[in-house]
Amino acid sequence: MNSLDPRITRLGLPDAPPPPPDKLALDQFETYEAFHQKKEGTAYAYVGPVHAPSADVAFLFAKEQYSRRFACTGMWVVPTTSVHLSPYADDNASVYDELPAAEQTGNASTAEQQEEALYTAGDEDYDIFHLKKRGKAHVHVGRVRATSPAAALQVAKAVFGDQRPVVNVWVVRSADVLRSDDEDRDIWLTTPEKKYRDAMAYRVQDKIERFKQEQKNAPQV
Amino acid sequence: MYGSASTDHLPTNAPTGLENEDPILLAEFEARIARGEKIEPNDWMPALYRKQLIRMIEQHAHSEIIGSLPEGTWITRAPGFRRKMAQMAKVQDEVGHAQLLYSAAETLGKTREQMLSDLINGKSKYSNVFNYPAYTWADSNVISWLIDAGAIVNQMANAKGSYGPYCRALDRICAEEAFHLKYGHDAVVHLATGTPTQRRMIQEALNRWWAPIMTFFGPSDKMSVHTEILMRWKVKMASNDHCRQQFLDMYVPKIWEVGLTLPDPNLRKNEETGQWEFTEPDWEDFKRVINGDGPCNAERLAVRRAAEENGAWVRRALLSPKAQYVRPLA
Hints:
The complex is a heterodimer of chains A (221) and B (330).
Chain A: H1 6-10, E1 30-37, E2 45-52, H2 55-67, E3 74-79, E4 83-85, H3 111-121, E5 124-131, E6 139-146, H4 149-160, E7 168-173, E8 178-179, H5 204-217
Antiparallel strand pairs in A: 1-2, 1-3, 3-8, 4-7, 5-6, 5-7
Helix pairs in contact in A: 3-4
Chain B: H1 23-34, H2 47-72, H3 81-106, H4 112-120, H5 137-158, H6 164-192, H7 196-215, H8 225-232, H9 240-257, E1 268-270, E2 275-277, H10 283-293, H11 297-318
Antiparallel strand pairs in B: 1-2
């Protein structure tokens, strides 16, 4: 195949190749969900999925895909299979209101005792993410201790249930999250030196003004 | 980089299938959109909504991948280190946009494997403008500025659509493309205000690209039942003519202000109607190219296919035997 681009010509691609076979299942790997911290001290928020063969590679891809162009100070990746979803509520509602009430644990009578009892019954940490509005991103609200994702959702209801609105909740076992290390924070510092990727770096209006001035000053013919 | 042109060969008289949908669920779905709420992947949605969005987002993703090829070919020959870096960053952005869009389409139930297969085997379309070659550095600049400008008009409209994952992807894409537009404009102005040779070079590139640019948004929409439904569901956000007029309004004055001309003697803004008038693009030629007979169709697919095939062994080597597919969440 001949191309204007000599590199493509050199590939020696056939002009009329036989039809390609369909890709095999999982040719593009599993998916991971990525969360970013935009600024030190702010909550981690969902940025999107990546396809990757392992969590480490997912981290690299997510760093490239989601932190390449804008400020970022930390990143988490989670296998999609490890995220447990609550049902979705309407905007302005709370999905916690739709959850069946938790069973009373022991002889807890007040809400605080109930929360305390749920917490001490747990044996693993779970990260909780809220979606406040449809079309926006899930944001990390905190961590609870529970025995299962379903139990973690109940604890989250006790702890975060007064927040409104909550359209949807994601529950992730904390051990399943690959997190960037504070010690490695210098990996996030590459963006500022690449000014040519900012619209601000192009002073095109100056060039246009100069051109118009030159046109005005040019002798009329 | 995507215009609505590639979706326009849809069979507009195909059945909508709405009579088979549960009327209560359909009413709730339409009420949600009418309230201005977004649809998320786990919500009930009519089959037509799902099908149309998959088609649209998938074509958008393909357009990003294929659209990076004519500019990518100029990276090694970009004049100067700074331009090389900027061109590379832009091409990387476009490929990144494809990743975001494939994932958004995937939440609707079509696997990424199937989408990539359908691109290479020619079952899916992409923006028709990328079937034309970038002969010179100036052609690449025209693409960077005006094709991206057209895509931004389209993407800004679609970002107000009803499907959550597509909106999230488009918000990120539009933010990244702000640089593309300025970069392209700067590159075109640089040549237009340069030496007579540079000026001639950019004028010739603009002359070559004007016809494809005028087809970028597709022919006038035939108002059909489909169009009406898809607009109500906030899948199609603006008519092709509306996008084209908006584009001409924003960019023709910017082209003219640096002394460049456009190869259409009929192009003018009718001050009474506020509409641009122009010579109707050659839609027969457009159809011929979109159906495979353009100057670069074969090369674009062959290059994409070679990249897929040459990387296959790496992906196979990395695949864990325990891998288990689920759709991305949002």
